[in-house]
Amino acid sequence: MSETLGPRPWMTAPQTVAVFDSLEAVGGADCARYVGGCVRNSLIGQPVSDIDIATRLAPDQVTAALKAAGLKAVPTGIEHGTVTAISGGKPFEITTLRRDVTTDGRRAVVAFTDDWDEDAQRRDFTLNSLYARRDGTIFDPTGHGVADARAGRIVFVGEAEDRVREDFLRILRFFRFFAWYGVEPADAAALAACESLRGDLATLSAERVSKELLKLLAAPDPRAAVALMARTGVLGEILPGPIDLARFDGLVAIEEDQLFETDAVLRLASLLPDDQFGAVAFAERLRLSNAERDRIAAALAPTPVLKSWMSPREIRRALYHQGHQVFRDRAKLAWARADRTATTPQWRGMIALGEGWTAPAFPLTGRDVIAAGAPKGPMVGQVLAEVEAWWIDHDFLDDRMSTIEKLKSVVQGMAF
Predict the structure, then answer these.
(1) How far apart are CA 260 and CA 350, in angstroms?
(2) Is the pLDDT of residue 109 over 80?
(3) 376 phi and psi angles, rounded to 5 deg
(4) Mean per-residue pLDDT for 123-132?
(5) Within this chain, do residues 118 and 6 fall inside the same structural domain, yes or no?
(6) Do 176 and 322 sit in the same domain of this protein?
(7) Per-residue DSSP letters for 207-262?
(8) Can you give the residue range of the structural domain that contains 306?
(9) Which residues contact 127 (CB under 8 A, 6 or more apart)?
(10) pLDDT confidence of 259, banded at 50, 70, 90?
């Protein structure tokens, strides 16, 4: 008897029904099946976010079927047989069954087929080579996908080295799926293939590598996967050394223990050396966004050094200069290196104080400096900076008159 997912809310949603109805109106019953992540996640009780569909219909037939049903069809990967349907505002990736004709480790030339088994054989892992009819009936062409998914085994379809040579990004995908769904020990054949071919990661585009790496680091607990990457030399192919695994492990433990949200960008920063300029070069080489680059660089700046025993006044000063995001990032990284058993309350309190404090606006402007007798020009900025430093030293004194008096004394003491 075939195993079934049973009807799930995502399967019976009107948007999903409309897509399947449109395809079956052209290709008949069972011309399309759910595939990959939505089947896998439903099987193991994980949330389903994306719904991918495999079909015997050719891409032009898919496009015509969707348009006939009043649905939008977007040719997102037409050379590989992929059309994205937009139904009720939700995207559905629909891909024609295919087989690889040629591959070079970065891209593949494919031919379309109507054979479900042939399509399964070109996929990466057994737990991703699962299909389900619209009624939930599961098809497992490799014969191992269901069992591997439930057991947390990340196993390549067929020969591991063959699958990796087809697309070297599968090295990172192996560790990403191990981080999200895997259980130790990792598959020995998969590890051997990833280690043997790790040098070929250099042939991939930086954008593909960074996207996969950040997905991996976003897993609830990627420590085991990252440790395996380091052991096999894969991590060293991507990150500049030395790699700070201890700080990374500490950060993940803090997020887990303190119920902080997982933060892939900060986790990436935790692995890097404390070298602000090196971090910028790395971020640019990996084609991270400007915001991600700047955040990592700020988190790894050498000063100011944050300590768990800082006073509230010192914390407010650091917050004023760094801003909430940078302060929180630097506090977490410093905490990750500390003796968490002894200092957790202090670090937790420091971050809480930072999240609850709003930096006041400096009460003076250039007009106030000129009104106090300073001439227009560069001197205005110098005076403002000196008075602002005094104001910060006095813990952001909430007394404009006292600040103006300080301004007057600074102006009177300067030679113009």
Answers:
(1) 14
(2) no
(3) -65, 150
(4) 96
(5) yes
(6) no
(7) HHHHHHHHHHHTSS--HHHHHHHHHHTHHHHHSPSSP-HHHHHHHHHHHHHTTPPP
(8) 241-359
(9) 40, 145, 148, 149, 153, 154, 155, 177, 181
(10) confident
Select from 358, 363, 369, 346 the least CA-distant residue to 397.
Answer: 363
Residue 344 three-state SS: helix
Residue 416 has pLDDT above 60, yes or no: no
HSE, CB side, 13 Å, CA atoms: give it for residue 195: 13
User: Could you identify the residue written with the tokens 């403002």?
Assistant: 384
Taken in order 304, 310, 313, 319, the sign of the CA dihedral is: positive
Q: Name 10's Cβ contacts closer than 8 Å, sequence gap at least 6.
A: 16, 38, 42, 48, 51
Q: Which residue type is seen at 39?
A: V
Task: Judge if 133 and 56 occupy the same domain.
Answer: yes
Structurally, how many domains does the chain consist of? Answer: 4
In sequence order, the β-bridge partners of residue 103 are 108
60 and 132: one domain? yes
Give residue-wise pLDDT tens across range 330-389.
999 999 988 777 778 899 999 999 899 999 999 999 999 999 988 888 889 999 999 999
